[in-house]
Design brief:
- With about 140 residues, the chain is mainly alpha-helical.
- The protein has one domain.
- Helix 1 packs antiparallel against helix 2, helix 1 packs antiparallel against helix 4 and helix 3 runs antiparallel to helix 4.
- The protein is elongated and about 55 Å long.
């Protein structure tokens, strides 16, 4: 479980950093079906690109910890799921977006439960496994 959590978290982090850099560089031209909505939409897109890049850095940081902090993974996965909630609100208000955004929504709904499950399993494993070199607990 720990290995799967580590690699999935690292993959998520690297993907988010790459996506963030892409959106910082491309602005609205990097979003399918965005059109030319002008300076405000471009500014917003580049801003959120920077936020997404930072979000990815936290995923990478968490993946590099030993043990991986389950609480951090739960927060990150929940934020990812909240993004899907935002997309569903958008569907309710404006209708269905470009097919690529629908595919992203499916990923944003499917992955968080996997991260939550892996984080809980890893947390339970580390709670029952004594750390190497640690002294036994006496009561």
């Amino acid at each position: 479980m720990a290995t799967a959590l580590k690699w999935l978290s690292m993959t998520m982090g690297v993907a988010c950093v790459a996506i963030g850099i892409f959106h910082l560089a491309a602005g609205i031209d990097g979003i399918p079906d965005m059109g030319d909505d002008g300076a405000t939409a471009d500014s917003q897109t580049r801003f959120f690109g920077a936020i997404f890049l930072g979000y990815g850095v936290v995923w990478i940081w968490a993946a590099r910890q030993t043990p991986i902090p389950a609480t951090v993974i739960r927060w990150l996965a929940s934020i990812f799921l909240l993004g899907a909630v935002g997309r569903f609100i958008s569907v309710a208000v404006y209708g269905w977006p470009h097919w690529f955004q629908i595919a992203l929504t499916a990923i944003e709904v499917a992955l968080p439960p996997i991260y939550l499950w892996l984080a809980t399993a890893d947390e339970k494993r580390t709670a029952t496994t004594p750390m190497a070199g640690s002294a036994p607990a006496f009561s």
